[in-house]
């Protein structure tokens, strides 16, 4: 991957200087995983930071044999940065929802470059604060109607990872169980709401290609705003 593409793909790298980008790419390790494969086990947090080059993953909390999806991440996002900073144990893992390509940078190398490039350090803090705001928004919306909460999840996924197409923003057709858990509503509710949004023409579900088109993004934003 060229440094320009690296910078464009990952918002975290948008302010890093060219020397930083080149150095990171030289020490990064490529990974490829099929759908359904665990890409980061709970006992491996803190070893590296991972960047999603392509595909979709879910972060899930594990308890015995049960698991709950906490977040969905797509191209351009990263994970593992909190664990390398606080070094506390994690009861979460990361699983590929689709075929996925990742880059990993070891804990030692990443911390080393944070000290060398203050712009990168500052940018990471900005993105971490943004994530905290998203968590706060989810907490504020817990009492909102299921349709409003699901619309907010779809809008967030579209804004963060959606690819522009002639049918609107294109996102992965996330399994309804995972979509429901991230939104904190029931699977049956998720199925009904997604079907209704499809009937209204606000979204278009393409099961054959495993994608969802957010056709009427403005209407979804309006629905998500009805708190």
UniProtKB/TrEMBL annotation:
<dbReference type="InterPro" id="IPR014710">
    <property type="entry name" value="RmlC-like_jellyroll"/>
</dbReference>
<dbReference type="GO" id="GO:0003700">
    <property type="term" value="F:DNA-binding transcription factor activity"/>
</dbReference>
<dbReference type="GO" id="GO:0005829">
    <property type="term" value="C:cytosol"/>
</dbReference>
<dbReference type="Pfam" id="PF00027">
    <property type="entry name" value="cNMP_binding"/>
</dbReference>
<keyword id="KW-0238">DNA-binding</keyword>
<dbReference type="InterPro" id="IPR036390">
    <property type="entry name" value="WH_DNA-bd_sf"/>
</dbReference>
<dbReference type="GO" id="GO:0003677">
    <property type="term" value="F:DNA binding"/>
</dbReference>
<keyword id="KW-0804">Transcription</keyword>
<dbReference type="InterPro" id="IPR012318">
    <property type="entry name" value="HTH_CRP"/>
</dbReference>
<feature type="domain" description="Cyclic nucleotide-binding">
    <location>
        <begin position="12"/>
        <end position="131"/>
    </location>
</feature>
<dbReference type="InterPro" id="IPR050397">
    <property type="entry name" value="Env_Response_Regulators"/>
</dbReference>
<keyword id="KW-0805">Transcription regulation</keyword>
<dbReference type="InterPro" id="IPR000595">
    <property type="entry name" value="cNMP-bd_dom"/>
</dbReference>
<dbReference type="InterPro" id="IPR018490">
    <property type="entry name" value="cNMP-bd_dom_sf"/>
</dbReference>
<dbReference type="Pfam" id="PF13545">
    <property type="entry name" value="HTH_Crp_2"/>
</dbReference>
<protein>
    <submittedName>
        <fullName>Crp/Fnr family transcriptional regulator</fullName>
    </submittedName>
</protein>
<dbReference type="InterPro" id="IPR036388">
    <property type="entry name" value="WH-like_DNA-bd_sf"/>
</dbReference>
